[in-house]
Every structure is written in C-alpha cells, then in structure tokens.
Amino acid sequence: MAWSDMELQVFLLILFLCLTSKRCEGKVNHKPSCGYPPSQWCRTLEIALECGVQKQCLELRATRPNVTVPPVELTLYYESLCPGCRDFITQQLYPTWTLLRDILRVNLVPYGNAKEMQNAVICQHGEPECHVNLVEACILHTTSHEAFHVINCMESASDVLTAAQSCLQLFAPSVRWENISSCVRGPLGRSLIHENAAKTRALNPAHTHVPWVTFNGMYTDELEDQAMSSLFHLVCSLYKGGKPPACTGALRKLDRSFC
C-alpha cells in the first residue's frame, strides 16, 4: 500500500532526527514492521516501542513549543460532499493542523446547509451526502484523536463513502467498522446529527454558505477570507503564545557527532 503524504512526512521527520542525533545504532529500518501507519508512530509510548522509534519520538517532542496559552480553536461547519468543503479540508485545514497541531484545536461539524425535518434530514447534495455526514459524525464521536486523520483520508478520495472503511482501518485500526455502522443505523447517529443541526442553527451570525469557519467561536468576513487564502499564516497570527518554529521559520539545531 502506498504511503500518504502525511505518513511520508512523519517518517522523513523521524528519519531526519535519527540521522542527526548523537547515536543511531544499526541500519535505519525504512518501514518498521508494526501495525500502525507512520503518522501514528509517536502517538503513544507503546506504539513508539513497537515500531522501534522511541528515541526519535522523544526528540520530535522536544521540538514542540511549550504551550502555556490556549490553542486557537477552529470550528468548521461543512458538508461531506461539498467540493469547496472537501478542498478546504484537504488543501488548507488538514495540512495546517498537521504542522501546527500544538497550537490549533480543530472541531468538525458535518451538517452544513442541510434541513432537519420532522422525520428526516434533507441535504444539499442529496441522500448520499446525508449518509456520509452521518458516517463522519459517528467517526468523530467514536475515534477521538484519530478522527481527523480518517475524515481527511475520506475527503481526499474520489469516492468519500467507499473510502470510509479502509481509511478507518488505516488510521484507527483499533476501532471496528461494525461500531461505526451500529452508530449510523441506530439512535446515536440520529442524535449526533441533531446535535450538529442545533450547533449550526445557533451560529451568530447565521451561516450563509459552507465551508463556514469560526475562530475561538467568532466569525467575520475578514477572518474567512484569510482562512481561505492562507490558513496557516492566520493561525500563526492568532496564537497568543510563543510562536512554534513552523510559524517563525526558525530551525532547531540538533546536537551532532561524527566518527
């Protein structure tokens, strides 16, 4: 299976840390034989040990900023099959979050321009979108930290729904697809969509289109224009704490030794 851009990015960063550290014993294993994609090698100590990258993960964490102020909170109100929403997620939001996840908290609300009727939900792009909105709401509820990886994987695919199960298996292997299906078919899924509908209706000002983005609970046309053109720089400017190296362009010098 081919690696995603993010998997390759995390692997190369870990490889770089290995090569530039004081000691990197033995040959570099270019793809550790563990059951997790590279994007999750440093998620927990247990995974790092299983994948043989504990030392590199510790050095990677040392490059992160000492967060002493709240992160920028971005909430995206979107529709799963809206082309503009898919582009924003895959081309702006996910790459920005990948680089700035220590200072950016992302909340996803799949519902958008749908209309909640007495016994049904009517979606702008038809019943398939209603179903995918429901699937993504269940994934967000069930998979916690891995949810954004799964949803970006889905939204990057040519067929969002068909990709759902394989994306879940890749980025959240501990979650069974049957759990998502049960949520989609049962009262929990309906409750999650109703909750998203209520959140969307409560927007002030009311949303007029999607994607609709708020920062720390606030929406302005100016913020939206900046988010759509250069989200990365906007998040860096909104964060009130010490800027991480990604924002300043500063390089962290690692100790090196030669033989």
From TrEMBL:
One of its GO terms (biological process) is immune system process. It is found in: Secreted; Lysosome. Keywords: Disulfide bond, Glycoprotein, Immunity, Lysosome, Oxidoreductase, Redox-active center, Secreted, Signal. Residues 27-67 form the Saposin A-type domain. One of its GO terms (molecular function) is oxidoreductase activity, acting on a sulfur group of donors, disulfide as acceptor. Residues 1-26 form the signal peptide. Pfam families: GILT. Belongs to the GILT family. Dimer; disulfide-linked. This is Gamma-interferon-inducible lysosomal thiol reductase. It comes from Clupea harengus (Atlantic herring). The gene is LOC105893713.
